[in-house]
Amino acid sequence: MSLPGLDLTQSTAEKQHAPAPPSQINLSSGSEWRFEVAFGTTVRVKLLSGTAELFGTELAPSQTYTFSGTKAAIYTWHGCTLEVSEGDQLSVLDGVTPAGTNGVAKGFGAGGCQSEYTAEETPMVEYANVHFALESLRQEAKSTGKDGPRVLILGPENAGKTSLAKILTAYATKVGRQPITVNLDPGEGLLSVPGTLSAAAFKTMMDIEEGWGNSPMSGPSPVPVKLPLVYFYPMQNPLEGDGAMYKPVVSKLALSVSGRMAEDEDARETGIIVDTPGILGAGKQGSEEVINHIVSEFSITTILVIGSERLYSTMMRSYDNKPSTSASAAASDERITVVKLSKSGGCVDRDPAFMKATREAQIRSYFFGNPIPSTAASALSLSASSTTNITLSPHAQQLDFSSLAIYSVSTPSGSSSDDDEDEYDPANLSSDSLLPGGSAFPTTSQDEPDSQSSQSITLKKLPSPVPTGLANSLLAISHAPPTASPNEIRDSSIMGFLYVADVDSDKGKIRILAPVGGRVPARALVWGKKWPGEVVGLVG
Amino acid sequence: MSSGLASDEVAEDYKNSLEDLTTNDRFQISNLTVIAKENTEHAMAISRVLENHIRSVGGRPSFHVFHYCLYRYTPPAQKLPALYVVDSIAKNVGTPYTLFLGRNMYQTFMNAYTLVDSQTRRKLDEMLKTWKEPVPGSLDTRPVFSPEITRSIESALIKARTAALQQQQARSQHEVLNRGRGVATPPGWSHTPTPPQATPRPAPPHNNGHAHGYHGSADSYSGRLTPTQHQPVDLAALNRDIEALIAAARNDFANSPLEPSVQQRLRALLDLQGILQRQELTQEQLKLVRDQVSALGPASTPVMSNPAPVPNVPSISTPSMANPAQPYRHLLNQGTLAELIKATATRQQPTPPPQPPTSIIPQSSSPQPPVASAGENPLIASLRARGLIPTVPTPSVPPTAPAPSLASAFPFIVPGQIRYTPPVPPPQVSNASDVTVSVQMNTASIKIPRHALISSLYEARSNRCGTCGRRFFATEEGKEKKAHHLDWHFKTNQRMAEAAKRAQNRSWYVDERDWIKSRESGDDQSLAGAGEGDPHAQSNAVEKGPQKQWIRAPNDAALRNTPCPICQEKFESTWSEDVQDWIWLDAVKVGSRVYHGSCYAEVTKDGSNTPVGRTGTPDSILGKRKAEVS
């Protein structure tokens, strides 16, 4: 007979593999289906009839979309029927541990969703109207030769800012426009990993399954890739040191975007959509100054405030009906509009564990591609599969630490730990957490004299010997040469990331994972020590 | 199509036969159908005759009909049989008649519709409903007339009804007072012979009016006699009712999302809701809307099938209640209506309906001169306002008419806030895409539902890619784009199958300069130029590279690390946006070996085949630099 223990495992395994029967969800027009899928599980959604869209991007009929590790909503303007079924469990690949807390959290909702329900009340009418209002401005821009609207989205954490940015981008793309979407939130990447500020022109459809989609890869992608311009901001908090590092990077990004606008007619007409970190909307010390910086650098014309009356009134006072900062504003009397938008009832708080898992998933997919394994169905017929199960193969190699120019951020508040680089303290990560309730940073920097605070965050070259703290963290490869000045490196866009798998401090070697094979470009590297932080187990 | 002479003869015969048709005579109609069937080669001529006949039956005679309608309760019954002939032909013969008749069906139908009485309208509505469905018993699943035609008619009717409601606003205080009186003096209507109904019958106007007045009062006015009292109740109840209707319509829509009539109806209801939510209606308007809604509610049938009450209900009720017969006499004495009808009829324009109710509105509401102007049927006014009814240069309407009456009859122009083309899709579908959007960017404006605009995201682009759901216009240009787009899918799938065999990796991000210079390559442009092997394609693929030769970077690691036999330097892999793959710039494959193009050119130029190392020309260095940089 079998041992009790074996018996037990077998039965649980069986239970887990028994797929729940597909369930159908009927949505009446104007309602949405909100669902949460844990990391490590997948849910398949198919549009059977009607029309449906996920954050503005329309679902194709009869295609199966696979979701994992997401909290999203499928909205319908006309009513639709969805079929939801349980997908494969994600096995532990490459030593990948599904995000700690969510590892076994298979939900009991339809198709194994952690939670799923249908909501009748959504702010989609408002959001769509914002799109139409922007369209009016774009039509005007086209006929008059002015620049299209530059939209800034502000709001506290978990208010749906990024979702709104996606909806506006998707709608604009849908009607044949080409917006430049800018992510100024270092907490989450846009076509990149967390810790980056990036911009990309969206001309083609967004990926339903993968948020913003993919940046270019060596192979083809079923959903057209988007080409981002990426800057590294190796901290989570943009207000760090009164934005001493954030602001110059934003300026540089804005400069590039306006350069693109000047040359790219489609982009000029359509304008810019700027997504921001929630901390700017939390009324923290110094955030208004950073907002002001963004507004003037991007010549913002429209400020959308979601889910915060206080922020709205502040913005109204500061910006409404004020001339925008664009060069032509004086001539054309271009003025800033501040608009208040409702927060969707579907916005859920994403707990730190979920955010961490999201960040890890972003980093993982940068190196390894889509984590969703190819299913039998999609492997059989390519045409029937809309899943982007592209597996990427990064290259591992050993590098001499002495041959690299690695810079790291040094802040006054962290100066003590600067001397002690060897000790990487994960607790650091939580100390500059953005959770409302506050961190010590704003107050610290507040005490600093202004003149000094601009100098307070600098890039410093890592001295030998190689710090063991490098292990499991990311190095950004900037476009700046190794000999460039720290400020130049800070303001330089980046080529990509290396993942430090291992540090051999005795021999002064590090083992790294590079997305692209061949020699690692001889450029200045910036260490993402504090942010995006440590990712354990990317390489087995 | 057919020889002119024969057609003329046939047409003449047919015309004569048609003129004999004065009643709904089944035999005659089927006879006419058979004639049409036997003369399909003259379909165009016959269709023309039918159209002209239907049009000419109206006009002046209808003025008399108007009298009948008022005093003898006789339906006009002139246009209806002719339209039944059309219906019979369309169903029994089908093409080519449906094509020819379909062309002007909108005008023909709307013309007739505006001129007939409510009972006939109901019949027309019933007929219209059957046009949206396939011919019973036929194998053909297509509707009798194409959905575009029926949809345009339906939407025009819905909008016209809404417009009619709007026009009632002028009669504000008046009506409330009257209503109050009416309720206070039940005898006025208590002896109504038939139970109140939403659908009017050819009943005496008094009764009819009372019935509706009663209906309105009964539904939500019960016990509330003064306007001040009923205000709050009004709005809440009204919103509830409309919501219920919308919910029902949404249900319908969910069941048959592609049914145009359902879409139209839902849209109209949502528009109505939008207007309400904007709260720009006066209490009086609200009241009228409410009446309308409550009339629709119990029936819970599509708006279409219950057309009559809309323009009639409120208009009849008030005057008849206040002073039953007088308004009519007053009107007739003045002869204003006759004058108006003459003015328009002689132009063969859609005449203002010879219906007392609508014409009375101004009389009862404002005792001022612009009788004629305001007297214009809101239906027509709104249609004109939208340019749906051809023509009507201002002169044909009494001079006082245009601005104010149109504005009030056209609820969708809301001062200040929005101005956009009416939500009615114009008869031609293709026009739907040209909707000019004008939505103000402010907190108030963006709260107004604009469901009509949603169609610019969906219906306007009806040509859908089955793979990714992308939408294209149903125009030639759209088709071409879609063809390119499908090519793109096909090639991508092909290349994915290829790519599955080799390892792939993430590319480096570009720097500022390249990003600024880069242009998104859509997936709907011609793919010519991205192919391999074509020299032009290659030159396109490598935008700024000084060397035009390139090959795909090999996947095999050994091959990839094999240096150029000439200069002994390794090849640099570069991501090519156009090829969507890694390539080696300045590389050329000769036999099984890969050389730097420049090296190879240099060597072969010298006539030497000796692979001497480190002889890279300035060109090749430049090329490789370039590759490194990007």
From TrEMBL, chain A:
Residues 27-141 form the Clp1 N-terminal domain. It is found in: Nucleus. GO terms for molecular function: ATP binding; polynucleotide 5'-hydroxyl-kinase activity. Its main location: nucleus. Residues 1-27, 410-464 are annotated as: Disordered. It comes from the Eukaryota. InterPro entries: Clp1 (IPR028606), Clp1/Grc3 (IPR045116), Clp1_C (IPR010655), Clp1_C_sf (IPR038238), Clp1_N (IPR032324), Clp1_N_sf (IPR038239), CLP1_P (IPR032319), P-loop_NTPase (IPR027417). Belongs to the Clp1 family. Clp1 subfamily. This is Polynucleotide 5'-hydroxyl-kinase GRC3. It comes from Aspergillus sclerotialis.
TrEMBL record, chain B:
It comes from Aspergillus sclerotialis. GO terms for molecular function: mRNA binding; RNA polymerase II complex binding. One of its GO terms (biological process) is mRNA 3'-end processing. Residues 169-227, 345-375, 520-549, 606-630 are annotated as: Disordered. One of its GO terms (cellular component) is mRNA cleavage factor complex. Residues 6-161 form the CID domain. Residues 193-205, 350-359 have a biased composition (Pro residues). CDD domains: CID_Pcf11 (cd16982). InterPro entries: CID_dom (IPR006569), ENTH_VHS (IPR008942), PCF11-like (IPR045154), Pcf11_C (IPR054127), Pcf11_CID (IPR047415), Pcf11_Clp1-ID (IPR021605). This is CID domain-containing protein.
